[in-house]
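Residues pack. One example:


***
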Amino acid sequence: MSEATSPPPSAPRRTRVAVVFGGRSSEHAISCVSASSLLEVLDPERYDVLPIGISTDGRWVLMSPQETRQLAIVSGRLPARIDETSGALVTMAGDPTARELTVHEPGAVPKTLGEVDVVLPLLHGPYGEDGTIQGLLELAGVPYVGSGVLSSAVSMDKEFMKRLLVSAGLPVGPYITIRRGEWQRDPEKVRAAVAGLGLPVFVKPARAGSSMGISKVSDLDQLAEAITLAQENDPKVIVEAMIHGREIEIGVLAGIGGAAPTASLPAEIKVRGEHEFYDMQAKYLDGSADIELPAVLDDAQLATLRQLAIAAFEALECEGLARVDFFLADGGDFVVNEINTMPGFTPTSMYPQMWAATGIPYAELVDHLIAEALARPPGLR
């Protein structure tokens, strides 16, 4: 009589990760490039990955690996935008008892893709990085990478970000806010306020990133055109005094299970050629920015920078990750420029580069972010 044999052990269940990218903001293409890079490093033996693109009109579509590989920057050109023809339409209900994605195909009965363990929302700008998708995921009861609703919203809005940083005692440069209709109602009042900052100034959309819609204004005659450009991205505009000095960036990474956040080695951005500042072209397309990584700082400066970065992260109650951008002013003081709760993950993006230089390579960094999100369930915390 033969001995009974035990069945072979079943393979451990893979973590189901929905990577969401694209979106309705002006940073749609940059989000797609970030996703293209990140999807390449997710270990298929550990993760069951669902690539979900959001079209420019807000539709969610399930995309194939072949489609996502076409989202990289090629020859200095951004990828095509996602539209409703890019894949089958997908929906997520704000129902914590379901936590499922449903696929809708023409002429077919809707079918479920099953529960999702964690969402990685690689969305930049409004309708994604600003607390909106975070609110949906909170309603659905699905863990997700990155900051929650409040911190995402205030970090996206440069005015309220600066207000909270100032209230926490952190150094912020002089600025004014131009709200919807102010320029049209009283342009002379706005001109006077801008002049009070001293020229040159930078005119920016209050709630955009990737240097979209930013102008350097050295003459008040340029102000109207700069405000118009900024308002193409956001009706609310912020005008910042120029800080003379060095541009330094640093990454912050939350610990798993409530452990203290840590800060990476910093990088310095040096723009060359015809660019007057670190604009989108210099960031992503023409390679005209030099990156010094790590930035040349003495031990005291590095310690101060790391302390300020973590303080900014905690002041805004950020979670998961953030990139904090500083100026090292000519007088020797650090000034917080802004904080990004979902920084770019393209091959040239500073956040993954800084952590790689600190000793955490790209794939390991993504693993850490997913593990941190899974250890931090949605809801009040």
